[in-house]
Queue: 2 jobs
Job 1
Amino acid sequence: YLRNSLAQSEVNVARYYMDRSAWLAAFNRAEYAIKHYQGSPAIIEALVIKIKAARQLGKNDLAADSLQVLKANFPDQAAKLIQ
């Protein structure tokens, strides 16, 4: 429970940064959540934030890599979450 709560907290901060167009900060928070809280349900949203932030930063190859990870690990959610 605590691990999932910490992961969600990191994602909430990343979402806050996304709302303020702080793309690099959002990307870094999402990546931190992914690295440190594997297996948490919040990882799905962290991957989505990472993809969107990478696109905004002009790092399309990094966004494509993250999208492949999302599709490979969460195929059902990937179709709904990424436009």
Note: The two ends are 31 Å apart (CA to CA).
Job 2
Amino acid sequence: MPLSVERVEDWLGRPLVGSDGEKIGKLEDIVFSSSGTPLFAAVSTGLFGRRTSLVPLHDASLTPDHVSVPYTKDQIKDAPQLDEPSEMSAELEDASAEHYGLPARQRADGEAYVSAGERARQAERARAAEAQASELEAHAGGLGEHAREAEQQALAARERADSLAREH
């Protein structure tokens, strides 16, 4: 069953538990395809959480206190590593799929990857742009009102000037 993007992004920061019941690490980020499909969890593993392992999300599930995946701690610990979600590539995706015994995913030409963190930054930039657009619209409306008033004043001044010119 496809995962809901909103629901998956709510998983960030939760512990990840493997099929053997062992806590693996903390879900640090999520890698999405450019079409918005959640593909992999980036999970901090190793001593002091200094490694980031990729874990497929297609069979992941949420419990009240953690995210559960059908892979063992050892399998995840030995999975391909990701330093930064922005470094995700088709080659790394294929290596991860092979590591977990999954078929390679068909990708669209030019398909890219985006992390949950980047999606949040994009959403924040969109909200800021929307707020700025609203402010500019309000300002433009105010300028439009001033322009109409100035136009009316200019028309009145022209009429007075024409009237004075006729009198002289």
Note: Strands lie at 15-17, 23-33, 38-45, 51-56, 61-62, 67-68, 113-115.
